[in-house]
Amino acid sequence: MVRHGLAELTADPAPAAYRAAVGSAPSGVARLHGWDVLLADPPDDLPVELRSLLPLLAAVEARWSASAGGDRIVHGDLRADNMVRDRFRGVMFVDWAHATTGPACVDAVSLAPQLVLAGHAPAAVARLLDEHPAAVAGPEATTAFLAALCGHWHLNARKPPPPGAPGLRPYQHRAAAAGLAVLLHRLRR
C-alpha cells in the first residue's frame, strides 16, 4: 500500500496549487550533508571501517545538491508515524509540515532506513529502491540523497540532545546506521 501510494504521489509533476502552497524557497532537504564535516575532522570514536569510507561517502554526498531540484511532490518527513492506514482508503500520508517539491526519490529514500529499522534486510531494501518507480528514474540522485541523509544523521547524532527530545540523538544514530547499510549495498554494485 505504501509503495503504491508513494509511486502514485510522485508519478506526475506537482500541481500548480501544491507548488503555490509550498512556496518557491529551496527545500531544506537540498542542504543535507554531514560526511564532508566528518571527513574534515573525523571524531576519535569513529570506527576504523567507517573512517576509511569517509572520502567515498563525502564524494557521493557532494553530488546531492546538483540533483536536489525537481518538480515532484515531496512530503519531506515520511516515516511510519506520518502515515495512517484506513481500511477503505488505504494508506494516507499525514503531517505535511515539511512539504516541498524535488526529485521523486526523496520520500522513497527517506523510508529506506525506516524499513531496515523495522527488521527488513538492508540488501532487500536496496533492491526495493532499485525497483521502485520513484527511485528508478534517478538512480544517481537516489544514491546521492541516501548518502546526504545518512551523513546528516551521522553528524547530528553526535550533537547534544535538544531540550525536550532525549530520544532524538539515539534515533538518528540508529537511522544513520540503517541507512548506511542500504547505501553500502547500492555502492557495491
Note the topology.
Layout (H helix, E strand, L loop, with lengths): L1 H9 L5 H7 L12 H6 L7 H15 L1 H4 L4 E3 L8 E4 L3 E4 L6 E3 L2 H13 L4 H10 L1 H4 L2 H18 L11 H20 L2
Antiparallel strand pairs: 1-4, 2-3
Helix pairs in contact: 4-9, 6-7, 6-9, 6-10, 7-10, 9-10
How would a crystallographer describe the biggest sheet?
Answer: 2 strands, antiparallel
Strand line-up across the major sheet: 1-4
CATH level-two architecture: Alpha-Beta Complex
Number of strands: 4
Percent of residues in helices comes to 55-70%
Domain count, please report it: 1
* CATH fold title: Aminoglycoside 3'-phosphotransferase, Chain: A, domain 2
Mean of all residue-level pLDDT scores: 92
The helix-strand sequence is: HHHHHEEEEHHHHH
Note the gap between the termini: 28 Å
* Beta-strand percentage range: 5-15%
Q: Helical region count? A: 10
Q: Which segments are poorly predicted (pLDDT under 50) over 5 or more consecutive residues?
A: none
Using only CA atoms, what is the Rg?
Answer: 16 Å
Structural class: mainly alpha
The CATH class is Alpha Beta
Global outline: globular
Written account of the structure:
- Strand 2 and strand 3 form a beta hairpin.
- The protein is globular and about 50 Å long.
- It has a two-stranded antiparallel sheet with strand order 1-4.
- The chain has a single domain, classed as Alpha-Beta Complex (Aminoglycoside 3'-phosphotransferase, Chain: A, domain 2).
- It contains ten helices and four strands.
- The mean pLDDT is 92.
- It has 189 residues and is mainly alpha-helical.
- Helices cover 56% and strands 7% of the residues.
